[in-house]
Amino acid sequence: MRLVYCKLCRFADTFQDHGRTLVGLFDDIKPSGYPAQSPPLTVSLEIECEAAEAGRPMELEVVFIDEDGSALMNCKAQGTCPEPKLGFPGRMPLNIPFGQGMTVIPKSGAYRFDVLVNGVHLGHERLLFL
């Protein structure tokens, strides 16, 4: 199992028969001052599962973490590893919207969104607050 991508954007959608669309990609935010309200954003990610993992239960967790390693907010979902298609590993795309002001950003720094499946860290996306 691996994380194919994890991106931050203003909006993301999955269109039937046309794949995924991510609008307004970014990796830094410049608020007017601190503490600052978290902006509206979408965490868009995709997980790939090998054939041997197909059908296994998976618990996905996305955690927003500050520079000190403290979790500011998280989101959990449960599902099963997708079946392979046409000889390729199964892929599971997911778009997680976070609304404006879901958490307070206390100071500037390098924050991140960690992606875990069944407690195993698959990767992360960094978000700089300048």
Briefly characterize the structure.
With 130 residues, this protein is mainly β. 0% of the residues lie in helices and 62% in strands.
Written description of the protein model:
- The protein has strands spanning 2-9, 11-15, 19-23, 28-29, 36-37, 41-49, 57-65, 71-80, 90-98, 104-105, 109-117, 120-129.
- The protein has 130 residues and is an all-beta fold.
- It has a single domain (2-129), classed as Immunoglobulin-like.
- Strands 4-12-11-7-8 form a five-stranded mixed sheet, with no helix packed on it. Strands 1-6-9 form a three-stranded antiparallel sheet, with no helix packed on it. Strands 2-3 form a two-stranded antiparallel ribbon.
- Strand 2 and strand 3 (19-23) form a beta hairpin.
What topology does this entry show?
Elements: E1 2-9, E2 11-15, E3 19-23, E4 28-29, E5 36-37, E6 41-49, E7 57-65, E8 71-80, E9 90-98, E10 104-105, E11 109-117, E12 120-129
Structural class from helices and strands?
A: mainly beta
Mean pLDDT: 93
Radius of gyration: 16 Å
Tally the beta strands.
Answer: 12
Going across the biggest sheet, name each strand in turn. Answer: 4-12-11-7-8
Helix content: under 10%
SS strand fraction: over 45%
Give a quick account of the main beta sheet: strands, pairing sense, barrel closure. 5 strands, mixed
What is the 3D shape? globular
The span between the termini is 34 Å
Poorly predicted runs are: none
Number of helices: 0
Order of helical and strand elements:
EEEEEEEEEEEE
